[in-house]
Amino acid sequence: MSHPHPELPLPGPLPVGALRVVALGGLGEVGRNMAVLEYDGRLLIIDCGVLFPEDHQPGVDLILPDFSAIADRLDQVDAVVLTHGHEDHIGAVPYLLRLRPDIPLIGSRLTLAFVAAKLKEHRITPVLREVKEGDEVEVGPFALEFVAVNHSIPDALAVAVTTGAGTVLHTGDFKMDQLPLDGRITDLRAFARLGERGVDLFMPDSTNAEVPGFTTAEAEIGPVLDQVFAGATGKIVVASFSSHVHRVQQVIDAAWANDRKVALVGRSMVRNMTIAVELGYLTLPDPGILIDIKRVDDYPPDEVVLMCTGSQGEPMAALSRIANHDHRVEVGPGDTVVFASSLIPGNENSVYRVINGLTRLGAKVVHQGNARVHVSGHASAGELLYCYNILRPRNVMPVHGEIRHLVANGALAVRTGVDPERVILAEDGVVVDLIDGRARIVGAVPCGYVYVDGSSVGEIGEADLKDRRILSEEGFISVFAVVSAQDGSVIAGPQIHARGLAESGDVLEEIVPQVRKALTEAAREGNVDNHQLQQVMRRVVGRWAGTRLKRRPIIIPVVVEA
Amino acid sequence: MSHPHPELPLPGPLPVGALRVVALGGLGEVGRNMAVLEYDGRLLIIDCGVLFPEDHQPGVDLILPDFSAIADRLDQVDAVVLTHGHEDHIGAVPYLLRLRPDIPLIGSRLTLAFVAAKLKEHRITPVLREVKEGDEVEVGPFALEFVAVNHSIPDALAVAVTTGAGTVLHTGDFKMDQLPLDGRITDLRAFARLGERGVDLFMPDSTNAEVPGFTTAEAEIGPVLDQVFAGATGKIVVASFSSHVHRVQQVIDAAWANDRKVALVGRSMVRNMTIAVELGYLTLPDPGILIDIKRVDDYPPDEVVLMCTGSQGEPMAALSRIANHDHRVEVGPGDTVVFASSLIPGNENSVYRVINGLTRLGAKVVHQGNARVHVSGHASAGELLYCYNILRPRNVMPVHGEIRHLVANGALAVRTGVDPERVILAEDGVVVDLIDGRARIVGAVPCGYVYVDGSSVGEIGEADLKDRRILSEEGFISVFAVVSAQDGSVIAGPQIHARGLAESGDVLEEIVPQVRKALTEAAREGNVDNHQLQQVMRRVVGRWAGTRLKRRPIIIPVVVEA
């Protein structure tokens, strides 16, 4: 397998009859998935999601794919295909549509319902085109076929895109639960038909490629929930992702079996499950089983289940606030909290903080570490091998993963007989051309992280984040002085302000005489240029901070003449 | 089991014949372990370690136990017993000895060797008293007996402390590998003898109390390493904790079996393993097997193993630098990197960043997710149950864990028949008295986090950390203006400086005219008080940042008269 080349040139023009593929997000990170296909001057986008920031990206709200490679070609975009309704596949759609609101969005009913609700919050009215598995749709030069796949949200689709260059099959996110709650399996017969016709480029979900074996079935959780509920004497609180319809279904079923009502808690949980009920994806054993959160106290604790958000320890979500005694819902001895959710790598500290908080309140906490209350939504190595053998793709470009996931997925392909030269390990921005049935890396386009920060999009850059990290680790010191315009003598100040350094202001006052002395000497030497005086202040303060505090804060020296 | 009370008073004086126990660290977090026992006016300290900061404690280097409860009683401390040489048990000793350098340190040979090396770096010469398992030692009113325990560092000890109030047994950190590499098992016969004499208070390690079953044996890793080494065609790099002597032993043994030399990489790895070889804890199959890092290039890649630090993705340690192409050691296609280490919760992002970096360089990466190259150092529930049944303690106070771990450990005790009223769930600062064979919570002393930050100890407080977090998420804006002392009109400025906000300085310049206008108006209204003018500036800038940027940066407004 060829590894991604660090130094790739901009690609040349697209040869006639060739298909060009570039990921603008989702390859090299788990999140902000976005693939762009180009054929004969037209573009097709598959997914447009967001990535959530890590701790070294402080203050950032969301990270978007980098649209710059197509920013001046948006009129050539024929459609955006949305494989399913998860944030890392639809979350950036509002930001794309801001640039061109009439780009058609193609997806299944539930996917479009979720994205429409999101776009309504952004006050954008989209052009929607609903499809379902089995549909065949022409969009510009792209002939699309949709295939049902099973995932941790209902109504997920894989899409086969056929052009003069051949057929590309993109799985979206998928697994292969053979007895899913809704009976909607990943359609391997459709994969078989596509395989027989010939798949020129296979783009499979790499998330669990490193995990040997097979992903556990969702239905195995039901009996565990039932057992936990049956043994619970007080209130039950369950946390999961607000889009996990089947997980909520199992919670509702277990509640029903144990004579408990269910209250949905958290704005996104209420919104998403309301949509799911309306569209028939969530089945209520009885219309009265769902009660409003405000009515929970009308019932004894052992007759309620609260289905809430916050499974990742997000500070503002319901569960963290419950753990912090900052929510109308109170939890205490005798109550049970179930984290029916994954623990996304990076979120461990937040989640354990909430678990400890709930434990301190006296609750019993059940989570995937001590009970089978979660299964993954992604195919493991075992399922991926089935796919490679059924599809026998001519070329493979693993998607949806960090490089370790992509490499592991590529290795699986090779083990089933795919020529290593035809396994493309690309990262965001790397351009791949499919010509005459052969896929190759032909160059790369710039592709950075685009930060949504407060109201700004793309204004915060790496330099700002570096400043923020320095600020957080070292703090800052501002020094202000007013000097005479005539002779540079100090008229007022120096005044010193600092944050994040040391609680005692006295510590800082040590430096003031040193700065004044340095300024006075500089003026005596005829140094009256503001910039030079600021540099003098910066040096004195920096040296002092380094020696006295062993810190390197950001220093803002300001000299003003008067 | 009674849960820790949120509102506990200061404890009263210690009754005659009673033993008082308080943890100043280690209960409620995994780290900074320190227990203080008091009897008849004398104090005995068990362990004195550090806690490593999380991302919400930016810039902090280390977190110490809170010595304030004993700060004015240090002359009453008879000794510090150090159960083993891990940082979370010895790392804070230098900071304690700074306060009273002649406090005797009691521990095993390897433990004292590690702590002496650490103290040398702090230029402190300690009073050392070496003991080994089986020794009985009197220290003030405390009769100490030492028991061998097996852990992920050699020469670990449990300590039984007998006074007029009875016997306390503190396990230190332990597990119960029955076939350990050095043959030094956790001495259950000694536990049985203590149990028959009577254990009044048992203080067991809770780290793995939530994990059912038994901890895997260290020796199971050897064959896995051998298999990985045998199949490796290029260079091999192995990362583990620099104090894990037995892990390094297995790496050396596998290297020997596969005709490879071993180079130690990283300052602490070299220092600790040198001590271990000198004292006979690490056995070299041949004196020539260890080579200096500078000589690695004298050998073909398939004849070397590099044993290095950085298993937790620490940015400055060897492995991260190797992954970043910032180290004399280079890694590429054909090379193998083994993370023979745990993944401490909270470090996932750092570790995966390094794994992805190494993968991008073309290396094969082996870690506990895909091979048995690590086992825990702590007893699981299965082993803890053995201990409760053999010791049959009268009272139990779980130690060494977050509250979820302590609660799980307490639950195990109850299942073996310990009266729930005699299971003490305490956190740092909670005071427990053992009187007439009964342990009870009697109050709490203040016990906060003491931050080591640069050269300061205990100067950075929660307010500073909160400022740093705000700085990192929101940035800051300084506004500086010079006004006339006569009429308050603006003489110079306003000048605006910001960091961590937006890359474009133009954005900030928007606010300057608004600030000038607000200052001029305030002056016209007769508002010439500096403080009030600063408040005016703060309000204008704050409102602008909130509306225009949707951010709430720290604002430093400075008005100077001239």
Please provide a written account of the structure.
The structure is a homodimer of 562-residue chains. The first copy, chain A, has helices at 87-90, 93-99, 109-121, 188-197, 221-230, 245-257, 267-278, 318-323, 348-360, 381-391, 403-415, 462-474, 505-509, 511-524, 530-549; strands at residues 19-25, 34-39, 42-46, 62-64, 77-81, 104-107, 127-130, 136-139, 142-149, 156-163, 166-170, 201-203, 236-239, 261-265, 290-291, 304-308, 336-339, 364-366, 430-435, 438-444, 450-453, 456-457, 476-483, 490-499, 554-561. With 562 residues, chain A is an alpha/beta fold. The first copy, chain A, folds into three domains: 19-213 and 377-453, Metallo-beta-lactamase, Chain A (4-Layer Sandwich), CATH 3.60.15.10; 218-366, Metallo-hydrolase/oxidoreductase (Rossmann fold, 3-Layer(aba) Sandwich), CATH 3.40.50; 474-561, Ubiquitin-like (UB roll) (Roll), CATH 3.10.20.580. In chain A, the strands form five sheets. Chain A has an eight-stranded mixed beta sheet with strand order 7-6-5-3-2-1-19-20. In chain A, strand 6, helix 3 (109-121) and strand 7 (127-130) form a beta-alpha-beta unit. The longest helix of chain A is centred in the C-terminal third of the chain and has 20 residues, at 530-549. The mean pLDDT of chain A is 94. The interface between A and B is large, with 72 and 72 residues. Chains A, B: InterPro entries: Metallo-B-lactamas, RibonucZ/Hydroxyglut_hydro, RMMBL, RNase_J, RNase_J_2, RNase_J_b_CASP, RNase_J_bac, RNase_J_C. Chains A, B: Residues 31-225 form the Metallo-beta-lactamase domain. Chains A, B: Belongs to the metallo-beta-lactamase superfamily. RNA-metabolizing metallo-beta-lactamase-like family. Bacterial RNase J subfamily. Chains A, B: Ca(2+) binds at residues 59, 61, 453. Chains A, B: Its EC number is 3.1.-.-.
